[in-house]
TrEMBL record:
The gene is LOC110773376. Belongs to the 'GDSL' lipolytic enzyme family. Gene3D superfamilies: SGNH hydrolase. It comes from Prunus avium (Cherry). The keyword Protease does not apply. The chain crosses the membrane at residues 21-42. InterPro entries: GDSL, SGNH_hydro_sf, SGNH_plant_lipase-like. Signal peptide: none annotated. GO terms for molecular function: hydrolase activity, acting on ester bonds. The keyword Membrane applies. This is GDSL esterase/lipase At5g14450-like. Keywords: Glycoprotein, Hydrolase, Membrane, Signal, Transmembrane, Transmembrane helix.
Length: 400
């Protein structure tokens, strides 16, 4: 029998976390490599070859994805915000990480610095323009009394445009900086998570019919922002819908339910129905944009269903009291999270002993543990249209 000579073939590939790996394949003769691949049912392309190499993330939104904008602009959040994961307040309106943090980690990128934070920020891999209290449509004077942010989505877009223009002006290849490469803007992932405050503010100051009638204009403004980002060179979008407003502990604390107002999980049905209508119209807008923006890839993420699933199956997933909050309290004695208050002559700071058991951190925002659960479910595409994982979100499905 002739001696068979084995040839080791090494090639380098870059995985989804940007780490180089060496892959060695042993084949019997150079000619037989392809034949063996077919015989064994193996593809000639590496499994990770479809993974997108996003060099940066640019995020737009409200407190659900604010990595420090509100805290840097208005006032620094106090402890115990941030304590669960970071060990101190870091500008996130949670006890730890937000969904955007888990997304960045999944893509092998560092946590996003807030564009408005001038200290310790690094924008080499993107930035977050989100600010707590932000809305899609600018709010009038009445609504600012409710402590919403004046940094609405149109201002976040203006900040991004200015940031991009300045990068193009000052970037130099021969000098290491905290800025992204100009070419990264067209390759980056653009995430949007906003709309909750538009609905929440409307429900406080308008009738239900007025809020429902306003949704068309709100979603149209969001769609226009996506078009404008597209004109700036953005191509890949990951768009979250809004969550079940009627399940927020802060909402339920001030409502006196009438028969039929609460659903089987104890959530306020009228507010959830408003959120569902917003999401229906947002999805329609996204579908229309797919036809309009020929080079764009838009993924619509049903975060509402993911959040409602967690609330309805809380015990199954290790959480307790899905409609309760860990920090602060509402109702007769309002104790804001992180603030000590005198109640009946006694200093009170409402805080649970184990935040990982709570879905709601402070009555409005989700806990680190809940955000991790949600991120794990949405990043694999289970709640997305099209149903692709975030690591493959740059590829346009063939039927689109």
């Amino acid at each position: 029998m002739d001696r068979v000579r084995f040839i080791t073939i090494s090639r380098w590939w870059r995985g989804p976390w940007g780490l180089k790996k060496s892959v060695e394949a042993v084949a019997v003769g150079v000619v037989l490599v392809g034949a063996l691949s077919i015989f064994l049912g193996l593809g000639t392309q590496d499994k990770s070859s479809s993974a997108c190499q996003f060099p940066a993330i640019y995020n737009f939104g409200d407190s659900n994805s604010d990595t420090g904008g509100w805290s840097a602009t208005f006032f620094r959040l106090p402890s115990p915000y941030g304590n669960t994961f970071f060990g101190k307040p870091v500008g996130r309106i949670s006890d730890g990480r937000l969904i955007i943090d888990f997304i960045a980690h999944k893509l092998g990128l560092p946590f996003l610095s807030a564009y408005l934070d001038s200290l310790g920020s690094n924008f080499h891999h993107g930035a977050s323009f989100a600010t707590g209290g932000s809305t899609i449509q600018p709010l009038d004077g009445r609504m600012f009394e409710a402590r919403y942010s004046p940094i609405s989505l149109n201002l976040q877009l203006s900040q991004f445009a200015q940031f991009k223009a300045r990068v193009n002006e000052v970037f130099t290849e021969d000098k290491r900086t905290s800025l992204p490469r100009p070419s990264d803007f067209s390759k980056a992932l653009y995430t949007l998570d906003i709309g909750q405050n538009d609905l929440h503010a409307g429900l406080r100051l308008k009738t239900m019919d007025e809020v429902l009638a306003s949704i068309s204009n709100i979603t149209a403004q969001l769609a226009l922002t996506i078009e404008q980002l597209y004109q700036e060179g953005a191509r890949v979008f990951w768009i979250h819908n809004t969550g079940p407003l009627g399940c927020l502990p802060s909402t339920l604390a001030y409502k006196l339910p009438k028969p039929g107002d609460l659903d089987q999980n104890g959530c306020w049905k009228p507010h959830n129905e408003v959120a569902e209508e917003f999401n229906r119209q947002l999805k329609d807008r996204v579908f229309k944009l797919r036809a309009q923006l020929s080079e764009a890839v838009l993924t619509y993420v049903d975060l509402y269903t993911a959040r409602y699933t967690l609330i309805s199956e809380a015990e199954k997933h290790g959480f307790t009291s899905p409609l309760a909050q860990c920090c602060g309290s509402y109702g007769d004695s309002v104790v804001h999270c992180g603030i000590k208050t005198i109640v009946n002559g006694t200093e009170v700071e409402a805080l649970c002993s184990n935040p990982s058991k709570y879905i709601s951190w402070d009555g409005v925002h989700y806990s680190d543990a809940a955000n991790q659960w949600l991120a794990d479910r949405i990043m694999d595409g289970a709640f997305s249209d099209p149903p692709v994982s975030i690591t493959e979100a740059c590829h346009k499905p063939p039927h689109f």
